[in-house]
Amino acid sequence: MVLHPTASGELIINGIGSAAGGRYVRVDVNGVGTLIGDVSAESVKTNGTLKARGSIMAGRLDGEGTMRLQGSLQANEAKINGMVRVQESVSGQRLEMYGMLTVAQNCEVDDCVVKGALTVGGLLNIGLLELDMLARCTVREIGGETIRVRKSSGKWDPLWRWLVPAYSTELHAKVIEGDEIELVYTKADVVRGKLVTIGKGCSIGRVEYSGELKKLPGAHIGKEVFTNGN
């Protein structure tokens, strides 16, 4: 069944349904919903499974469950609990992700808070990154101002143990560049920053720093290079 917006511009899917792309004031999906084409809305709220055969542009996105987008995701503010897969890019002002986020291309967000697993096939461009790892994370390149990577100290729940039993909890990246960088359990070719802390479980090929470098016990650095910041 293909649903259409109400007179007020609201699109509500309860149960199983699909809707055409277009402009909406509000989109609510409770159950299993399919959006056919690009969708633009002031707010998008999902509880269940959302499949988008296109891109989603929202002022605010609140998601519970799973989301699969064949296009891009653009949201000023997004808070998601569950699993999200985006075949193109992600952009916005603030993203809070609790679960597993996979982005095939680039991800550009001012503030990015992730607890779980993160995979970005291209560039992760952020102002602030708070990554609390619960599983293996892979990002080709990270660029930003403040980058903090931690390993979750909480107990894994049964779902996480079932989803990622064979992967070690660590971040893999080619290049990580920022002003203030704090890393643990990270494998990277190059880390470049002003204030850099390389912590336990890290293996970094080359660290370039213009301010201060802290190498904590359990960290390995192939080459340390002090630069003047130019």
Can you put this structure into words, describing what you see?
The chain is mostly beta strands. It has 2 domains: 1-77, no CATH class; 89-230, no CATH class. The chain has one helix at 158-163; strands at 2-3, 10-53, 56-69, 73-86, 90-103, 107-133, 137-143, 146-151, 171-183, 186-198, 203-215, 220-226. Strands 1, 2, 3, 4, 5, 6, 7, 8, 9, 10, 11 and 12 form a 12-stranded parallel β-sheet that branches. Strand 8 (146-151), helix 1 (158-163) and strand 9 form a beta-alpha-beta unit. The longest helix has 6 residues, at 158-163. The radius of gyration is 19 Å and the shape is elongated. It starts with a strand and ends with a strand.
Secondary-structure topology with pairs:
Blueprint: E1 2-3, E2 10-53, E3 56-69, E4 73-86, E5 90-103, E6 107-133, E7 137-143, E8 146-151, H1 158-163, E9 171-183, E10 186-198, E11 203-215, E12 220-226
Parallel strand pairs: 1-2, 2-3, 3-4, 4-5, 5-6, 6-7, 6-8, 7-9, 8-9, 9-10, 10-11, 11-12
Brief description of this entry?
By secondary structure, the chain is mainly beta. It has one helix at residues 158-163; strands at 2-3, 10-53, 56-69, 73-86, 90-103, 107-133, 137-143, 146-151, 171-183, 186-198, 203-215, 220-226.
Supply the helix-strand structural class.
Answer: mainly beta
What do the pLDDT scores average to?
A: 91
Q: Specify the biggest β-sheet.
A: 12 strands, parallel
| Outline type | elongated
